[in-house]
Amino acid sequence: MGLIENSEWLQQIQNIMQLSGAVVDLLDLQGSSVAICLEEGWDIAAQVSSVAQLCLDPHYRTLEGFRILVEKEWIGFGHRFSHRSNLNANSQASGFAPTFLQFLDVVHQIQKQYPMAFEFNDYYLKFLAYHSVSCRFRTFLFDCELERVESGVAAVEDKRGSLTSHHKSVDTISDDENIYPGGRISSTYQGPNLGQSVFDYIEKQHARSPLFFNFMYTPDFEHPVLRPQSHLPCLEVWNYYLDEDLHYGPSYDPEIIQMDSQQEEEAEAADGINKSRKIVSLG
Which residue range or ranges hold the Myotubularin phosphatase domain (predicted)? Predict the structure, then answer.
């Protein structure tokens, strides 16, 4: 615990929650407009804006809505995922800055306080946290959409149009099909390096099984705004940092788990057949 206190990680989580809470109060209670403009605050602006919207609008607490939120506030606005995660040569001297991970941690803290307000479960957040640095999906590669297109992992026409009917009243000065990139593949381009969106993958998995679904999900539309406690005693160290899941296998790669299970079943079946043959030969 001493190492955790010295890192001041929970204090940083607290600061993000307090700033987001102030934005929520200004918008909800006072009906004010809020402009988030922080000096040297490119990263924290995305954190505060995302958390505030998550608390204000229950749509962003659904699987579909959270995808829209991340695509809009992080991918569409050009968060420097590779630079902050120290994944390219140009960022080696700057070190690892877990900006997106902090955001997911804050969502985890809010989810713990309001377990019935979220359609997705904690594993969903852990899955995103793991794959934000795994380099498996194009979603978190490079520092902007232009770099993804130039590298060939995304196509120019790859636009999701994330503003659904829930947001049709927003004046975007554009049609919905050309707003936020980084989502479903709508392009005819089939280059050899075209990557998959992590959210497309999650949607496919969710259609097969409730791997990411929160069975306690019961949205309260009469009281849609969340006001989580940000006092340090109310916060906890996310067990994503503490669990040793990777020691037993890649728990965030379902295909590999399924492959291992099939191999074990085939080995057990083969062993059973061999035992049966021995029994027959002895008889």
Answer: 1-242
CB 203: neighbour CB atoms within 10 A? 15
All structural domains of the chain with their residue ranges: 2-252, 259-283
**CA nearest neighbour of 157 among 183, 138, 139:** 183
Q: Which pTM value belongs to this model?
A: 0.78
Q: Please name which of 69, 123, 121 lies closest in space to residue 100, comparing C-alpha atoms.
A: 69
DSSP letters of 192-244? Answer: TTPPPPHHHHHHHHHHH--TTB-TT----TTS-------SGGG----TTTT--
Interatomic CA distance for residues 93 and 198, integer angstroms: 28
Rounded to whole angstroms, the Cα distance separating 183 from 75 reads: 9
Question: What is the H or E stretch that residue 17 is in?
Answer: helix 9-28
Do the beta carbons of residue 96 and residue 85 sit within 8 Å? yes
SS (H, E, C) 24-75: HHHHHCCCCCCCCCCCCCHHHHHHHHHHHHHHHCHHHHCHHHHHHHHHHHHH
Q: How big is the chain, counted in residues?
A: 283
Instruction: State how far the Cα of 60 lies from the Cα of 219, in Å rounded to an integer.
Output: 12
Blockwise average pLDDT, block size 10, the chain, 283 residues: 81 96 95 82 85 97 97 85 68 70 97 98 96 86 72 59 41 36 40 73 94 96 95 94 74 78 68 62 60
CA 198 to CA 67: how far, in whole Å? Answer: 10
| Owner of token pair 């988030």 | 36
Identify the pLDDT of residue 177: 37
